[in-house]
Specification:
- By secondary structure, the chain is an alpha/beta fold.
- It folds into 4 domains: 2-137, 2-Layer Sandwich (GMP Synthetase, Chain A, domain 3); 158-336, P-loop containing nucleotide triphosphate hydrolases (Rossmann fold), CATH 3.40.50; 341-404, Helicase, Ruva Protein, domain 3 (Orthogonal Bundle), CATH 1.10.8.60; 418-511, DnaA protein, C-terminal DNA-binding domain (Chromosomal Replication Initiator Protein Dnaa, Chain: A, Orthogonal Bundle), CATH 1.10.1750.10.
- The protein has helices at residues 2-7, 15-25, 42-62, 65-72, 92-114, 156-167, 189-200, 220-233, 245-257, 261-269, 286-301, 322-328, 341-354, 361-370, 375-392, 398-413, 418-429, 433-437, 443-459, 464-470, 476-492, 494-510; strands at residues 33-34, 76-81, 84-89, 119-126, 210-213, 240-244, 273-277, 305-310, 332-335.
- It is globular and about 65 Å long.
- The protein starts with a helix and ends with a helix.
- The model is unreliable at 1-39 and 127-159 (pLDDT under 50).
- It binds adenosine-5'-diphosphate and magnesium ion.
- Adenosine-5'-diphosphate (ADP) is lined by residues 181-183, 188, 214, 216-222, 347, 375-376, 379.
- Residues 181-183, 188, 214, 216-222, 347, 375-376, 379 line the site of adenosine-5'-diphosphate.
């Protein structure tokens, strides 16, 4: 082991900073603290970092970049002592996933790097109390005080109302939204696995609440409903309710107006698996938030499962009560990413199959290549294409697909302007419009300018020349260079990919 250690002279100075960064932005936006004692041997820590860096180099070459980013970047090496490498993983679920999917790769790699007698130990970060996320090992924190719970006033009327609802209880689940119909890809594998796990053991797992977040049309509603459908069919829970936040808020207000608030409360407190979709709509609705807070506490304490969806990470929600946000972060949060090419292809094929339709391969490829932002749009495209074809009584070929698709793509982007891109970029990178149009060659400014040019080319129909003129009267060749640079940099920089996704999301919202 000494020998292999001395071979491990890779540059590791930045490792922990990098991990901290990844950790903070990693999809498990939850509360961390560790059960074990702090590592006190600096050498052991350093050795662990060096060995783990070597392992990562090998692992990176053996799995796809998305999986690497998801499963290996967030791991923090803690110590290496007597051939035993301890690594910290963000949750029990994460640990199980790695063991299930990467066991042999990990074993091979560790034996190769550390030696024949190497051992691997996981330190699982426990998600418990609403403290600030930490990325280093900490001694166990005292657990959070029990949440205050408002006593439920179950009046006779409430009781009757509840009974009446139960008798004609409706879950509001769309059976089409099943796990079977949900195509798995790198973009959603983690979320899907978490959802399955919750559906299997509602209320009896560490993922309470389970929060699924992501942009529009990425499958949040489908996935949260799949949990409900599965639990219903397999009888894992009795009273399962899917409700959109809007409906919840409207029902709540109506119940106040009709003086039936205690019935409303009692009804929700009797649910075994409560699924609330799009919780971002609770923003600014103080009274509704308060009601949710109390329902949440009652259900959580009774080990009832809560599943939430949101269009952004919980910590990015504004105008929400702190105590509610902290509870929403008690369980597991996992995101849905836009589908990659293979997943888009698989989804299209499945939708065709379900509709008993066929399309030439080049047409399917063409759609999968050009409609990239979300699944709903992918579906919309397919529906439109099939409808146009049947209305016009035409065979679908690439030419027809191109004309239909062009329309949809133009529709989508028609509202995005160079001014919007400028505004969003300036806000995001915190630079002034003068800077972006000016002569500054400062790194941050030049980089932001390049991203602005790239987005302008991708999201508007403007020519290189127009874009160059808009961003400070620059030559069209400068714009071409910027577009290629950003295109290439995305291949190697997850941070840039993330920035661009976020910027697109903001532009999408701005252009609605
Ligand atoms: P969101 O709630 O995130 O806006 P939805 O769940 O409504 O998105 O999904 C939009 C459409 O795309 C739905 O028809 C859904 O069935 C479909 N969809 C999303 N993701 C997938 C997937 N991975 N496999 C199959 N269909 C999907
Ligand atoms: Mg939805």
């Amino acid at each position: 082991m000494e020998k292999s250690r001395s071979l491990l002279k890779a540059s590791v100075e930045n490792i922990s900073a990098k991990h901290v960064d990844n950790y903070a932005t990693f999809m498990l936006q939850t509360v961390y603290h560790s059960m074990s004692e702090p590592a006190n041997q600096i050498d052991e820590v350093r050795a662990a970092k060096e060995a783990w860096q070597q392992c990562l180099n090998i692992i990176r070459d053996n799995i796809n970049p998305q999986s690497f980013k998801t499963w290996f970047e967030p791991i923090v090496p803690l110590k290496l002592s007597n051939g035993e490498l301890t690594i910290q993983v963000p949750s029990q679920f994460f640990y199980e996933w790695i063991e299930e999917n990467y066991y042999s790769l990990l074993k091979r790699t560790i034996l190769e790097v550390i030696g024949r007698h190497a051992k691997l130990t996981y330190s699982v970060v426990v998600q418990q109390s609403p403290i600030e996320p930490v990325t280093i090992k900490l001694p166990q924190q005292p657990s959070a005080p029990m949440p205050e719970v408002r006593p439920i006033a179950v009046s006779r009327a409430a009781h009757d109302f509840y009974k009446a609802h139960v008798q004609r209880f409706e879950s509001y689940l769309n059976p089409r939204h099943s796990f079977e119909n949900f195509i798995q890809g790198d973009c959603n594998a983690f979320a899907l696995a978490a959802a399955r796990s919750v559906a299997e053991t509602p209320g009896k797992n560490a993922y309470n609440p389970l929060v699924i977040y992501g942009g529009v049309g990425l499958g949040k509603t489908h996935l949260v409903q799949a949990i409900g459908n599965y639990a219903r069919i397999k009888r894992k829970a009795e009273f399962i309710l899917y409700v959109s936040s809007e409906k919840f808020a409207i029902d709540f207000v109506t119940s106040i107006q009709n003086n039936r608030i205690s019935e409303f409360s009692a009804f929700y407190r009797g649910i075994d698996l409560l699924i609330i979709d799009d919780i971002q709509f609770f923003a600014g609705k103080g009274k509704t938030q308060e009601e949710i807070f109390h329902i949440f506490n009652t259900l959580h304490q009774a080990n009832k499962q809560i599943v939430l969806s949101c269009d952004r990470p919980i910590k990015e929600l504004r105008d929400m009560e702190e105590r509610l946000l902290s509870r929403f972060q008690w369980g597991l949060a996992t995101d849905l990413q836009p589908p990659d090419f293979e997943t888009r292809l698989a989804i299209l094929r499945r939708k065709l199959e379900d509709n008993g339709a066929t399309l030439p391969d080049d047409v399917v490829n063409f759609i999968a290549t050009n409609v990239t932002s979300n699944v709903r749009e992918l579906e919309g495209c397919l529906v439109r294409l099939l409808a146009t074809a049947s209305l016009q009584g035409k065979e679908i070929d690439l030419a027809l697909a191109k004309s239909v698709l062009k329309d949809i793509i133009r529709d989508r982007n028609v509202n995005i302007t160079l001014e919007m891109i400028e505004k969003v970029i300036c806000e995001y990178y915190q630079i002034s419009p003068n800077d972006i149009k000016g002569k500054s060659r400062k790194q941050e400014i030049a980089a932001a300018r390049q991203v602005a040019m790239y987005l302008s080319k991708r999201l508007t129909n403007s020519s290189f020349k127009t874009i160059g003129l808009h961003f400070g009267g620059r030559d069209h060749s400068t714009v071409i260079h910027a577009v290629t640079t950003v295109e290439q940099a995305q291949q190697t920089s997850p941070e840039l990919r993330r920035d661009i996704l976020e910027l697109k999301k903001r532009l999408e919202i701005l252009s609605l």
